[in-house]
Structures are given as C-alpha cells and as structure tokens.
Design goal:
Layout: E1 10-19, E2 22-32, E3 38-41, H1 48-56, E4 63-68, E5 79-82, H2 93-103, H3 108-121, H4 137-149, E6 155-159, H5 167-182, E7 186-190, H6 194-200, E8 203-208, E9 211-217, H7 218-223, H8 228-235
Parallel strand pairs: 3-7, 3-8, 5-6, 6-7
Antiparallel strand pairs: 1-2, 1-4, 8-9
Amino acid sequence: MRAPSSELPVVLENVSLRSGPTPILEDLNQTIAHGAPTLIVGPNGAGKTSLLRLCMGLTAPSSGRITWGGRTDRAPLRRAIVFQRPVMLRRSASANIAYALAQADVPRKARAARIAELLDRVGLAELAHRPARHLSSGEQQRLALARALARNPELLLLDEPTASLDPAATRGVEEIIAAAAQSGIKVVMASHDLGQVRRLAGEVIFLLRGRVHARETAHAFFGSPATAEAASFLRGDLVI
C-alpha cells in the first residue's frame, strides 16, 4: 500500500559519519530528487555503501541532518535497499516475496496477485516454488529486487547488485533496474563497473576519501570530468 508521504527529496545537510575517530564521510551537502538514476562511484573505501545506508536510514550520521521529503524520522515508508549479497529466507521464491508484502502491510487477499506480478516482472515466474537458496546468484539478486519492489518504493537504493554476477546475469538485473527507473522509481546505485555506469546513469556522484569530488551528468562525467581526481579515476589510475 502506498504511504501518503514522500521520501523525496533526500537532503543531507553537513552530514559526517565516523567510526570512532576515523572519518568515513565528511561534510556532505547533497540533495537526491526525482529523476534518472544516480550512480555512485569511487575506489574501495570511498564511502559508497555508507552513503547508501545513510540514505536508507540504517545508519545515523555522526553530525549533520538528513531529511526524507522534509521529515527527519528514519522510518523507511517508501524506500528499499538491496545489497551485493542479499540474504534469502529459508523458503520458496514466492514465500520470500510474501514475507516482504506482509512487512509492507499489503492486505493478505491482495498478496497472491502481487506475488505473481513481481515474479513475472523479474523473470522468475517459473521458479515460484523453488527454494530461494537453491537459485543461482543472478536469480537470487532478481528475487531480492522483487522483494524490494514489493514495498512499492519511491526510492530504491542498490549496493553493487551485480558485482559477483556473470555478464548474462548482470544484463538481466540491469534490465530490471532500468525498468524500475522508467516507471518513476528513483534509483541510487553504487557500482564499480564504469560500463554499467555508462549504461544506467543519468548523473554520477564521485566519492573519494569520504567526500564528494564530483557530481555531474553522466555525459559530462565521462566526457569532461570536473576534477583532476575524477579524471584520474576514469583513466584507471590508482586514486586513494
């Protein structure tokens, strides 16, 4: 069921995140609004996952403020997140989605039709009764996306969802993500694959050492990056 309030824009005001004395993200002032997918790139340890967790509300900032549609509470009304290695429940593919629908307070009488719709949407209709943990890695990731979409999200956060997949499985997942974006869902996704970023991104956020070093359209980022650090990253230099 759709909640009446909006998750967007997500606004980060002077947000920093630390682990003890160690800075993870520093002085972020960013707004994430409706539009084409936003892809987050940067070297390992740059803070990509931490930024997604902040946007989801799974992590509270050490300082600064985050709002979702003007709200400061972190309850994820219409946002969902998928991690690189999603955990599958010990039940069938369809039962995994049924659990997500129950968590989203979808009425029981509406769940069967919604399960069938979501399984078809991610290409798993024929595997509805297969144990989720017996699915391939690509199938599990598609099922994780179906569970996320069961929340009818306005904001979908993805943490390198194809990092461990082969090209065929990657293409299947990308098609689901692109279709979600085209349906009006705001996609924010971390990726280490620059080819994937070219295929999916409307804009790119380049993180380095916990700071945003560039944020621009994908066309500008790849054609004429705004900073020397971003240009070095695109050349494949070791940027640390």
